[in-house]
Amino acid sequence: MPVTFKIIPKRQLILFTYSGLVTLQESMDIVAQSALDPQHQPWQRHLCDLSAVTEVERDFLRLMQMQAKIAETFQPQAHDKIVLFYAPTKAGQMMAEMARKSWEGLNSVLVMVQHSEAQALAMLDLPEQNLQALLQIAESPA
Predict the structure, then answer these.
(1) What is the rounded CA–CA span in Å between residue 81 and residue 123?
(2) For residue 74, what pLDDT is reported?
């Protein structure tokens, strides 16, 4: 499957990793699956690694419907839900832009796009300089 997730409680974060051809259904399924994980918390930030995306399904109407369903799962918080896309490639940037546009006007989701891995992590106030270091934190004992 070209979409996976890893919940990193130490960083209050869910890391979604996309690769290859990304379909809307896979994206929706993985968000739903992450919400069922015992480590999931509604306030966790989402970091979407789009660095290995090569192609994106382009159905903007369906994307908007999907994002609306996802937004429904976000419980009201005292602050916005943060979704940051790390998108260094053209295909990843296209996917991030589609997602950003589909969430425009929703007060509950703050969408950010970053082309630099280190800057993406810094925007989330994470001390790690790269995703590999972040994954090592996820694998280390509590």
Answers:
(1) 14
(2) 54
* pTM for this model (two decimals): 0.87
Distance separating alpha carbons of residues 101 and 138, to the nearest angstrom: 31
Q: Which residues of 88-98 are buried (b: 16+ CB within 10 A; e: fewer)?
A: beebbbbbbeb
pLDDT for the residue numbered 108: 73
Architecture in CATH for domain 3-139: 2-Layer Sandwich (3.30)
d(CA 86, CA 35): 21
For residue 28, CA distances in Å to 87, 107, 135 come to 19, 20, 23
Question: Which residues of the chain are modeled with pLDDT < 70?
Answer: 1, 59-79, 106-107, 142
Please tell me the distance from the alpha carbon of residue 138 to that of residue 8, in angstroms, as a whole number: 5
Residue 124 backbone dihedrals phi, psi, to 5 degrees:
-95, 10
